[in-house]
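>> Question from a student workshop board

For tomorrow's exercise we were told to take the sequence and the ligand below, predict the bound structure, and bring the output to class. My setup keeps failing. Could a helper post the expected result so I can at least see what it should look like? The ligand is acetyl coenzyme *A.
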Amino acid sequence: MNSKITIIDHRTGKPYDLPVDQGAIPAIELRRVKESDDDLGLMSYDPGFKNTASCRSKITFIDGARSILRYRGYPIESLARDSNYLETAYLLIQGVLPGRDDLDGWVEQIKRHRDLPECIQQVIKAFRSDAHPMGVLISSIAALSTCYPEARRLDDTQTLEQQTYRLIGMMPTIAAYSLRHRLGLDVIAPDANLGHTGNFLRMLGQRQKSGGVAEISEKVLDVILLLHADLEQNCSANVMRCVASSLGDPHCATAAAVAALSGPRHGGANERVLEQLRKVGSKDQVPGLLKRVKAREERLMGFGHRVYRDYDPRARILKQIAEDVFAEIGSSPLLDVAKELERVALEDDFFVQRRLYPNVDFYSGIILDSIGFPANEFTVLFAIARTAGWLAQYREFLADAEQSIARPRQIYDGEDEREYIPITDR
Ligand code: ACO
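>> Workshop helper replied:
Here is what the output should look like for this input. Compare the format with yours to find the bug.
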Protein backbone atom coordinates (compact mmCIF):
# COMPACT_ATOMS: atom_id res chain seq x y z
CA MET A 1 0.00 0.00 0.00
CA ASN A 2 1.35 3.43 -0.91
CA SER A 3 1.88 5.79 2.02
CA LYS A 4 3.72 8.99 2.77
CA ILE A 5 5.96 10.61 5.35
CA THR A 6 6.14 14.24 6.31
CA ILE A 7 9.47 15.94 6.83
CA ILE A 8 10.03 19.41 8.14
CA ASP A 9 12.84 21.50 6.68
CA HIS A 10 14.09 23.39 9.73
CA ARG A 11 16.05 25.76 7.47
CA THR A 12 12.74 27.19 6.25
CA GLY A 13 10.14 25.73 8.61
CA LYS A 14 8.27 24.18 5.63
CA PRO A 15 6.72 20.69 5.84
CA TYR A 16 6.84 18.33 2.84
CA ASP A 17 4.84 15.17 2.19
CA LEU A 18 7.00 12.56 0.48
CA PRO A 19 5.56 9.35 -0.98
CA VAL A 20 6.82 6.04 0.43
CA ASP A 21 6.63 3.12 -1.96
CA GLN A 22 7.85 -0.36 -0.98
CA GLY A 23 9.93 1.09 1.85
CA ALA A 24 11.62 3.75 -0.27
CA ILE A 25 11.31 7.47 -0.95
CA PRO A 26 11.77 8.37 -4.62
CA ALA A 27 14.98 10.41 -4.24
CA ILE A 28 13.85 12.84 -6.95
CA GLU A 29 11.06 13.98 -4.60
CA LEU A 30 13.73 15.44 -2.31
CA ARG A 31 14.38 18.04 -5.00
CA ARG A 32 11.16 19.75 -3.94
CA VAL A 33 12.84 20.52 -0.60
CA LYS A 34 14.48 23.88 -1.25
CA GLU A 35 15.96 26.67 0.81
CA SER A 36 15.18 29.22 -1.87
CA ASP A 37 13.71 29.30 -5.40
CA ASP A 38 17.11 29.15 -7.10
CA ASP A 39 18.22 26.24 -4.91
CA LEU A 40 18.50 22.97 -6.94
CA GLY A 41 16.80 21.09 -4.11
CA LEU A 42 17.91 18.48 -1.61
CA MET A 43 20.01 15.48 -2.68
CA SER A 44 20.74 12.29 -0.80
CA TYR A 45 24.45 11.61 -0.09
CA ASP A 46 25.30 7.91 -0.17
CA PRO A 47 28.90 6.91 -0.90
CA GLY A 48 29.03 3.19 -1.68
CA PHE A 49 25.23 3.20 -2.24
CA LYS A 50 24.77 1.84 1.27
CA ASN A 51 21.12 2.87 1.43
CA THR A 52 20.11 3.51 -2.15
CA ALA A 53 17.84 1.27 -4.20
CA SER A 54 18.85 1.82 -7.83
CA CYS A 55 16.13 -0.30 -9.41
CA ARG A 56 13.12 -2.52 -8.90
CA SER A 57 14.08 -6.10 -9.59
CA LYS A 58 12.31 -9.46 -9.76
CA ILE A 59 15.48 -11.53 -10.12
CA THR A 60 17.12 -12.23 -6.75
CA PHE A 61 15.92 -11.76 -3.20
CA ILE A 62 18.34 -11.45 -0.28
CA ASP A 63 17.52 -11.06 3.38
CA GLY A 64 20.89 -10.44 4.97
CA ALA A 65 19.62 -10.69 8.54
CA ARG A 66 17.79 -13.99 8.00
CA SER A 67 20.35 -15.73 5.79
CA ILE A 68 18.01 -15.92 2.81
CA LEU A 69 18.90 -16.05 -0.87
CA ARG A 70 16.30 -16.81 -3.54
CA TYR A 71 16.53 -16.73 -7.31
CA ARG A 72 13.13 -15.80 -8.78
CA GLY A 73 11.57 -16.95 -5.51
CA TYR A 74 13.29 -20.35 -5.33
CA PRO A 75 15.52 -20.87 -2.25
CA ILE A 76 19.19 -21.28 -3.14
CA GLU A 77 19.29 -24.45 -1.02
CA SER A 78 16.73 -26.23 -3.22
CA LEU A 79 18.29 -25.02 -6.45
CA ALA A 80 21.74 -26.20 -5.28
CA ARG A 81 20.24 -29.59 -4.42
CA ASP A 82 17.90 -30.17 -7.37
CA SER A 83 18.81 -27.88 -10.27
CA ASN A 84 21.96 -27.30 -12.30
CA TYR A 85 23.80 -24.25 -13.57
CA LEU A 86 22.23 -23.97 -17.03
CA GLU A 87 18.69 -24.53 -15.78
CA THR A 88 19.29 -21.91 -13.09
CA ALA A 89 20.71 -19.53 -15.71
CA TYR A 90 17.45 -19.96 -17.67
CA LEU A 91 15.47 -19.28 -14.50
CA LEU A 92 17.42 -16.10 -13.74
CA ILE A 93 17.24 -14.74 -17.28
CA GLN A 94 13.80 -15.88 -18.46
CA GLY A 95 12.11 -15.63 -15.05
CA VAL A 96 10.57 -19.12 -14.89
CA LEU A 97 11.75 -22.70 -14.56
CA PRO A 98 11.89 -24.13 -18.09
CA GLY A 99 9.74 -27.01 -19.35
CA ARG A 100 11.62 -29.94 -20.87
CA ASP A 101 11.53 -28.59 -24.48
CA ASP A 102 12.51 -25.07 -23.38
CA LEU A 103 15.44 -26.40 -21.39
CA ASP A 104 16.62 -28.65 -24.22
CA GLY A 105 16.41 -25.74 -26.68
CA TRP A 106 18.29 -23.44 -24.28
CA VAL A 107 21.09 -25.94 -23.65
CA GLU A 108 21.35 -26.68 -27.38
CA GLN A 109 21.66 -22.99 -28.28
CA ILE A 110 24.35 -22.42 -25.67
CA LYS A 111 26.24 -25.47 -26.94
CA ARG A 112 26.07 -24.06 -30.49
CA HIS A 113 27.65 -20.82 -29.30
CA ARG A 114 30.71 -22.21 -27.53
CA ASP A 115 33.28 -21.89 -30.33
CA LEU A 116 35.50 -18.82 -30.20
CA PRO A 117 35.97 -16.71 -33.34
CA GLU A 118 39.53 -16.97 -34.67
CA CYS A 119 40.33 -13.33 -33.81
CA ILE A 120 39.46 -13.91 -30.14
CA GLN A 121 41.78 -16.91 -30.09
CA GLN A 122 44.47 -14.58 -31.45
CA VAL A 123 43.72 -12.03 -28.72
CA ILE A 124 44.25 -14.74 -26.10
CA LYS A 125 47.50 -15.88 -27.73
CA ALA A 126 48.84 -12.32 -27.66
CA PHE A 127 49.10 -12.38 -23.85
CA ARG A 128 52.26 -13.31 -21.98
CA SER A 129 52.27 -16.56 -20.06
CA ASP A 130 52.29 -14.69 -16.73
CA ALA A 131 49.27 -12.49 -17.61
CA HIS A 132 46.59 -12.54 -14.91
CA PRO A 133 43.62 -14.51 -16.28
CA MET A 134 41.14 -11.77 -15.33
CA GLY A 135 42.95 -9.28 -17.61
CA VAL A 136 42.81 -11.82 -20.44
CA LEU A 137 39.13 -12.46 -19.79
CA ILE A 138 38.18 -8.77 -19.73
CA SER A 139 40.05 -8.11 -22.99
CA SER A 140 38.64 -11.15 -24.79
CA ILE A 141 35.05 -10.37 -23.88
CA ALA A 142 35.45 -6.72 -24.89
CA ALA A 143 36.93 -7.95 -28.20
CA LEU A 144 33.83 -10.12 -28.76
CA SER A 145 31.84 -6.93 -29.30
CA THR A 146 33.94 -6.26 -32.42
CA CYS A 147 33.04 -9.69 -33.82
CA TYR A 148 29.31 -9.15 -33.39
CA PRO A 149 28.50 -5.50 -34.21
CA GLU A 150 24.81 -6.44 -34.48
CA ALA A 151 24.92 -6.84 -30.67
CA ARG A 152 24.39 -3.09 -30.50
CA ARG A 153 20.80 -3.53 -31.68
CA LEU A 154 19.47 -3.70 -28.16
CA ASP A 155 15.83 -3.35 -29.22
CA ASP A 156 16.01 -6.55 -31.28
CA THR A 157 15.04 -9.32 -28.87
CA GLN A 158 16.36 -12.12 -31.09
CA THR A 159 19.78 -10.50 -31.32
CA LEU A 160 19.83 -9.97 -27.60
CA GLU A 161 18.93 -13.63 -27.10
CA GLN A 162 21.81 -14.65 -29.35
CA GLN A 163 24.34 -12.56 -27.38
CA THR A 164 22.99 -14.27 -24.25
CA TYR A 165 23.79 -17.71 -25.73
CA ARG A 166 27.16 -16.46 -26.91
CA LEU A 167 28.26 -15.00 -23.62
CA ILE A 168 27.15 -17.98 -21.53
CA GLY A 169 28.55 -20.41 -24.11
CA MET A 170 31.88 -18.69 -24.76
CA MET A 171 32.94 -17.65 -21.26
CA PRO A 172 34.16 -21.17 -20.34
CA THR A 173 35.90 -21.47 -23.72
CA ILE A 174 37.76 -18.18 -23.22
CA ALA A 175 38.75 -19.28 -19.71
CA ALA A 176 39.96 -22.71 -20.85
CA TYR A 177 41.84 -21.43 -23.91
CA SER A 178 43.46 -18.73 -21.83
CA LEU A 179 44.61 -21.17 -19.14
CA ARG A 180 46.01 -23.62 -21.69
CA HIS A 181 47.79 -20.81 -23.54
CA ARG A 182 49.43 -19.68 -20.33
CA LEU A 183 50.52 -23.25 -19.63
CA GLY A 184 51.95 -23.51 -23.17
CA LEU A 185 49.44 -26.24 -24.13
CA ASP A 186 47.32 -26.65 -27.27
CA VAL A 187 43.67 -25.74 -26.88
CA ILE A 188 40.98 -28.43 -26.67
CA ALA A 189 37.89 -27.53 -28.72
CA PRO A 190 34.42 -27.63 -27.11
CA ASP A 191 32.75 -31.04 -27.16
CA ALA A 192 29.09 -30.94 -28.19
CA ASN A 193 28.43 -34.22 -26.40
CA LEU A 194 29.23 -32.74 -23.00
CA GLY A 195 27.20 -30.50 -20.72
CA HIS A 196 28.24 -26.98 -19.71
CA THR A 197 30.46 -27.88 -16.78
CA GLY A 198 31.70 -31.23 -18.12
CA ASN A 199 32.74 -29.54 -21.36
CA PHE A 200 34.56 -26.83 -19.45
CA LEU A 201 36.53 -29.40 -17.47
CA ARG A 202 37.26 -31.26 -20.70
CA MET A 203 38.54 -28.07 -22.39
CA LEU A 204 40.83 -27.52 -19.42
CA GLY A 205 42.22 -30.98 -20.13
CA GLN A 206 40.50 -32.46 -17.06
CA ARG A 207 43.29 -31.12 -14.97
CA GLN A 208 41.72 -32.39 -11.76
CA LYS A 209 43.89 -34.27 -9.35
CA SER A 210 43.52 -38.05 -9.36
CA GLY A 211 41.99 -40.21 -6.64
CA GLY A 212 38.25 -40.10 -7.28
CA VAL A 213 38.09 -36.32 -7.54
CA ALA A 214 37.56 -36.40 -11.31
CA GLU A 215 34.14 -38.00 -10.83
CA ILE A 216 32.92 -35.53 -8.25
CA SER A 217 34.45 -32.35 -9.67
CA GLU A 218 31.82 -31.85 -12.39
CA LYS A 219 28.95 -31.94 -9.91
CA VAL A 220 30.83 -29.84 -7.36
CA LEU A 221 31.89 -27.24 -9.90
CA ASP A 222 28.36 -27.05 -11.31
CA VAL A 223 26.97 -26.31 -7.83
CA ILE A 224 29.68 -23.68 -7.26
CA LEU A 225 28.70 -22.00 -10.54
CA LEU A 226 25.02 -22.11 -9.57
CA LEU A 227 25.70 -20.58 -6.15
CA HIS A 228 27.59 -17.69 -7.77
CA ALA A 229 25.06 -17.06 -10.55
CA ASP A 230 23.57 -13.86 -9.12
CA LEU A 231 23.45 -11.71 -6.01
CA GLU A 232 21.21 -8.76 -6.90
CA GLN A 233 22.75 -5.26 -6.92
CA ASN A 234 26.38 -6.01 -6.06
CA CYS A 235 29.29 -4.01 -7.43
CA SER A 236 29.62 -5.83 -10.78
CA ALA A 237 25.85 -6.09 -11.37
CA ASN A 238 25.67 -2.36 -10.80
CA VAL A 239 28.40 -1.86 -13.41
CA MET A 240 26.52 -4.12 -15.83
CA ARG A 241 23.40 -2.01 -15.38
CA CYS A 242 25.40 1.24 -15.71
CA VAL A 243 26.71 0.15 -19.11
CA ALA A 244 23.21 -0.96 -20.12
CA SER A 245 22.02 2.52 -19.14
CA SER A 246 24.27 4.09 -21.78
CA LEU A 247 23.03 1.40 -24.22
CA GLY A 248 26.46 -0.24 -24.40
CA ASP A 249 26.23 -3.71 -25.96
CA PRO A 250 26.11 -6.87 -23.78
CA HIS A 251 29.72 -7.83 -24.55
CA CYS A 252 31.12 -4.43 -23.52
CA ALA A 253 28.86 -4.47 -20.46
CA THR A 254 30.04 -7.95 -19.45
CA ALA A 255 33.69 -6.95 -19.90
CA ALA A 256 33.07 -3.99 -17.58
CA ALA A 257 31.30 -6.20 -15.04
CA VAL A 258 34.21 -8.67 -15.08
CA ALA A 259 36.57 -5.75 -14.42
CA ALA A 260 34.46 -4.75 -11.42
CA LEU A 261 34.47 -8.34 -10.19
CA SER A 262 38.26 -8.60 -10.36
CA GLY A 263 39.03 -6.58 -7.23
CA PRO A 264 39.79 -8.23 -3.88
CA ARG A 265 36.79 -6.62 -2.20
CA HIS A 266 34.52 -8.43 -4.65
CA GLY A 267 35.22 -11.57 -6.72
CA GLY A 268 38.97 -11.36 -6.20
CA ALA A 269 38.48 -12.32 -2.55
CA ASN A 270 38.48 -16.13 -2.97
CA GLU A 271 42.02 -16.05 -4.37
CA ARG A 272 43.09 -14.03 -1.33
CA VAL A 273 41.32 -16.40 1.09
CA LEU A 274 43.47 -19.26 -0.08
CA GLU A 275 46.64 -17.14 0.16
CA GLN A 276 45.69 -16.14 3.70
CA LEU A 277 44.86 -19.72 4.78
CA ARG A 278 48.13 -20.99 3.33
CA LYS A 279 50.05 -18.26 5.14
CA VAL A 280 48.37 -19.23 8.42
CA GLY A 281 49.28 -22.84 7.66
CA SER A 282 48.07 -24.52 10.86
CA LYS A 283 45.37 -24.19 13.51
CA ASP A 284 47.78 -22.90 16.16
CA GLN A 285 48.54 -19.83 14.00
CA VAL A 286 44.86 -18.77 13.88
CA PRO A 287 44.98 -16.54 16.99
CA GLY A 288 47.95 -14.66 15.50
CA LEU A 289 46.03 -13.89 12.30
CA LEU A 290 42.97 -12.72 14.24
CA LYS A 291 45.19 -10.47 16.35
CA ARG A 292 46.55 -8.83 13.17
CA VAL A 293 43.02 -8.48 11.76
CA LYS A 294 41.78 -6.82 14.95
CA ALA A 295 44.79 -4.49 14.93
CA ARG A 296 43.64 -3.62 11.37
CA GLU A 297 46.91 -4.78 9.89
CA GLU A 298 44.95 -6.98 7.49
CA ARG A 299 41.37 -7.99 6.65
CA LEU A 300 40.05 -11.46 7.19
CA MET A 301 39.38 -12.49 3.61
CA GLY A 302 36.14 -14.36 2.93
CA PHE A 303 34.50 -12.68 5.92
CA GLY A 304 31.95 -9.87 5.96
CA HIS A 305 29.38 -8.79 3.43
CA ARG A 306 27.53 -5.59 2.67
CA VAL A 307 24.14 -7.31 2.89
CA TYR A 308 24.67 -10.56 4.80
CA ARG A 309 24.88 -9.67 8.46
CA ASP A 310 24.28 -13.31 9.32
CA TYR A 311 25.74 -16.50 7.83
CA ASP A 312 25.82 -16.29 4.01
CA PRO A 313 23.60 -19.26 2.97
CA ARG A 314 25.98 -20.01 0.09
CA ALA A 315 28.88 -20.34 2.55
CA ARG A 316 26.85 -22.85 4.54
CA ILE A 317 26.26 -24.99 1.41
CA LEU A 318 29.91 -24.70 0.41
CA LYS A 319 31.12 -25.68 3.86
CA GLN A 320 29.10 -28.89 3.55
CA ILE A 321 30.43 -29.50 0.04
CA ALA A 322 33.98 -29.02 1.35
CA GLU A 323 33.30 -31.59 4.08
CA ASP A 324 31.91 -34.03 1.46
CA VAL A 325 34.79 -33.53 -0.97
CA PHE A 326 37.42 -34.07 1.71
CA ALA A 327 35.56 -37.08 3.09
CA GLU A 328 36.03 -38.52 -0.40
CA ILE A 329 39.64 -37.53 -1.08
CA GLY A 330 41.13 -37.39 2.38
CA SER A 331 41.42 -34.55 4.87
CA SER A 332 42.77 -31.09 4.08
CA PRO A 333 44.90 -29.02 6.46
CA LEU A 334 43.45 -25.90 4.79
CA LEU A 335 39.87 -26.95 5.61
CA ASP A 336 40.92 -27.58 9.21
CA VAL A 337 42.48 -24.09 9.41
CA ALA A 338 39.37 -22.51 7.83
CA LYS A 339 36.99 -24.25 10.26
CA GLU A 340 39.13 -23.23 13.22
CA LEU A 341 39.30 -19.65 11.94
CA GLU A 342 35.53 -19.57 11.58
CA ARG A 343 35.02 -21.08 15.03
CA VAL A 344 37.30 -18.63 16.82
CA ALA A 345 36.14 -15.59 14.81
CA LEU A 346 32.46 -16.29 15.46
CA GLU A 347 33.14 -16.31 19.22
CA ASP A 348 35.20 -13.12 19.11
CA ASP A 349 33.61 -9.79 20.07
CA PHE A 350 35.25 -7.95 17.17
CA PHE A 351 33.42 -10.14 14.63
CA VAL A 352 30.26 -10.59 16.69
CA GLN A 353 29.74 -6.83 17.16
CA ARG A 354 30.31 -6.09 13.47
CA ARG A 355 28.23 -9.10 12.45
CA LEU A 356 30.99 -10.50 10.27
CA TYR A 357 30.33 -14.06 9.05
CA PRO A 358 31.96 -16.23 6.39
CA ASN A 359 30.85 -15.22 2.90
CA VAL A 360 30.66 -17.31 -0.28
CA ASP A 361 34.39 -16.98 -0.86
CA PHE A 362 35.47 -18.46 2.44
CA TYR A 363 35.09 -22.13 1.51
CA SER A 364 34.94 -21.97 -2.31
CA GLY A 365 38.71 -21.49 -2.74
CA ILE A 366 39.56 -24.56 -0.68
CA ILE A 367 37.20 -26.70 -2.77
CA LEU A 368 38.43 -25.33 -6.09
CA ASP A 369 42.02 -25.89 -5.01
CA SER A 370 41.18 -29.48 -4.14
CA ILE A 371 39.76 -30.14 -7.62
CA GLY A 372 42.88 -28.77 -9.26
CA PHE A 373 42.18 -25.12 -10.07
CA PRO A 374 45.06 -22.66 -9.69
CA ALA A 375 44.17 -19.84 -7.28
CA ASN A 376 44.43 -17.12 -9.92
CA GLU A 377 41.63 -18.90 -11.86
CA PHE A 378 39.11 -18.66 -9.03
CA THR A 379 37.74 -15.26 -10.00
CA VAL A 380 37.47 -16.41 -13.61
CA LEU A 381 35.19 -19.22 -12.44
CA PHE A 382 33.16 -16.66 -10.53
CA ALA A 383 32.84 -14.60 -13.74
CA ILE A 384 31.71 -17.65 -15.73
CA ALA A 385 29.03 -18.26 -13.12
CA ARG A 386 27.94 -14.65 -12.74
CA THR A 387 27.45 -14.19 -16.50
CA ALA A 388 23.90 -15.53 -16.09
CA GLY A 389 23.11 -13.01 -13.36
CA TRP A 390 24.74 -10.11 -15.20
CA LEU A 391 22.71 -10.85 -18.32
CA ALA A 392 19.52 -11.14 -16.28
CA GLN A 393 20.27 -7.75 -14.69
CA TYR A 394 21.17 -6.21 -18.05
CA ARG A 395 18.00 -7.45 -19.74
CA GLU A 396 15.80 -6.43 -16.84
CA PHE A 397 17.34 -2.96 -16.99
CA LEU A 398 16.62 -2.59 -20.71
CA ALA A 399 13.01 -3.65 -20.19
CA ASP A 400 12.46 -1.21 -17.33
CA ALA A 401 10.66 1.93 -18.49
CA GLU A 402 11.52 3.72 -15.23
CA GLN A 403 15.26 3.57 -15.97
CA SER A 404 17.44 6.14 -17.70
CA ILE A 405 21.18 6.74 -17.97
CA ALA A 406 22.92 6.09 -14.64
CA ARG A 407 24.37 9.41 -13.68
CA PRO A 408 24.75 10.18 -9.98
CA ARG A 409 25.11 13.68 -8.61
CA GLN A 410 28.00 14.89 -6.48
CA ILE A 411 28.62 17.33 -3.69
CA TYR A 412 31.28 19.60 -5.10
CA ASP A 413 33.85 20.17 -2.39
CA GLY A 414 36.63 21.75 -4.41
CA GLU A 415 38.01 25.19 -5.09
CA ASP A 416 35.83 28.10 -6.13
CA GLU A 417 36.65 29.79 -9.45
CA ARG A 418 40.31 30.82 -9.65
CA GLU A 419 42.61 32.30 -12.21
CA TYR A 420 44.99 30.16 -14.29
CA ILE A 421 48.64 30.80 -13.37
CA PRO A 422 51.21 30.38 -16.16
CA ILE A 423 53.79 27.68 -15.36
CA THR A 424 56.60 30.25 -15.17
CA ASP A 425 54.81 32.01 -12.29
CA ARG A 426 54.01 28.94 -10.17
N1 ACO B 1 37.95 -8.38 8.26
C1 ACO B 1 38.08 -7.52 9.29
N2 ACO B 1 37.24 -6.50 9.51
C2 ACO B 1 36.22 -6.35 8.67
C3 ACO B 1 36.02 -7.22 7.58
C4 ACO B 1 36.93 -8.28 7.39
N3 ACO B 1 36.79 -9.13 6.37
N4 ACO B 1 34.92 -6.83 6.88
C5 ACO B 1 34.46 -5.75 7.52
N5 ACO B 1 35.24 -5.46 8.60
C6 ACO B 1 35.02 -4.40 9.60
C7 ACO B 1 35.48 -3.05 9.06
O1 ACO B 1 36.82 -2.79 9.44
C8 ACO B 1 34.49 -2.12 9.73
O2 ACO B 1 34.89 -1.95 11.08
P1 ACO B 1 34.76 -0.51 11.79
O3 ACO B 1 33.31 -0.16 11.69
O4 ACO B 1 35.27 -0.71 13.17
O5 ACO B 1 35.63 0.43 10.96
C9 ACO B 1 33.19 -2.91 9.77
O6 ACO B 1 33.60 -4.29 9.77
C10 ACO B 1 32.29 -2.66 8.57
O7 ACO B 1 33.05 -2.92 7.40
P2 ACO B 1 32.87 -2.17 6.02
O8 ACO B 1 34.14 -2.27 5.25
O9 ACO B 1 32.29 -0.81 6.27
O10 ACO B 1 31.75 -3.06 5.35
P3 ACO B 1 31.35 -3.00 3.84
O11 ACO B 1 29.94 -3.43 3.78
O12 ACO B 1 31.71 -1.68 3.25
O13 ACO B 1 32.32 -4.06 3.17
C11 ACO B 1 33.21 -6.09 2.38
C12 ACO B 1 31.95 -5.35 2.83
C13 ACO B 1 33.95 -5.28 1.29
C14 ACO B 1 32.79 -7.42 1.76
C15 ACO B 1 34.13 -6.31 3.59
O14 ACO B 1 33.46 -7.06 4.57
C16 ACO B 1 35.46 -6.96 3.23
O15 ACO B 1 36.40 -6.27 2.82
N6 ACO B 1 35.55 -8.32 3.37
C17 ACO B 1 36.76 -9.03 3.00
C18 ACO B 1 36.81 -9.24 1.49
C19 ACO B 1 35.81 -10.27 1.03
O16 ACO B 1 35.69 -11.35 1.57
N7 ACO B 1 35.09 -9.90 -0.05
C20 ACO B 1 34.10 -10.79 -0.67
C21 ACO B 1 32.74 -10.21 -0.49
S1 ACO B 1 31.51 -11.30 -1.10
C22 ACO B 1 31.70 -11.22 -2.74
O17 ACO B 1 31.87 -10.21 -3.37
C23 ACO B 1 31.70 -12.45 -3.42
